Amino acid sequence: MLSHTLNPEASGLIRSDGLPVGWAVSTVPVDYLAAVQAMEARVAAIAAGEASELIWLLEHPPLYTAGVSSRESDLLDVSRFPVHRTGRGGQFTYHGPGQRVAYVMLDLNQRGRDVRAFVRSLEAWLIGALAGFGVEAGVRDGRVGVWVERRGAGWSREDKIAAIGVKVRKWISFHGVSLNVEPDLTHFSGIVPCGIAEHGVTSLVDLGVLATMDEADALLKASALEIFGALAPERPPI
After folding, report:
1. For residue range 164-178, what is the model confidence (pLDDT) as tens digits?
2. CA distance 152 to 154
3. This prediction's pTM
4. Residue ranges of domains in the chain, CATH in brackets
């Protein structure tokens, strides 16, 4: 399996001033448009030097989002769930209960102005968290996100367990990642996830890992400490 490790300090991803990143967790589902509005406000405040960086963990009600590279033909069921057009990178994806969404608002002015290194850091963050569950995950050339290889008697396939879609404005990042903990995987059938029809999607529970959202959050936090540096608890923006 192809995977990679990342030395955050060598890539400038840990702030030299040691200021912590806010770490906020919403305990009830958050409306998508309200979350985007809150992100926009926080990004503007970070750019103005009026707020600290933030990683915000939440869940959304069932919905589809379309990134800037999305193709209309990849929306297979227009009426199934609300569809939101968004400015993040990538194509169509699904968000819903049982999926941990993490919106990552970091000041890349302080962490090296390298978007590719930032995306690699997000991949390494997810891979590190999954390793805590004993799940071997990695990345693939030409495919965005984090993948697992599944094997059986005479067969093997690769399924996507986490998606990445980000945007950068004035070198402040927003949008982020989604990790499938225990979503309803049939909900992905209304789209071609990330434009990749020849591979499937999976989750921790689908892989036989009976993980709770709290357990996933704990491992995401431990991995984030290694990748992004110090964290400080914070109330969710909304």
Report:
1. 999 999 999 999 999
2. 6
3. 0.92
4. 21-233 (3.30.930.10)
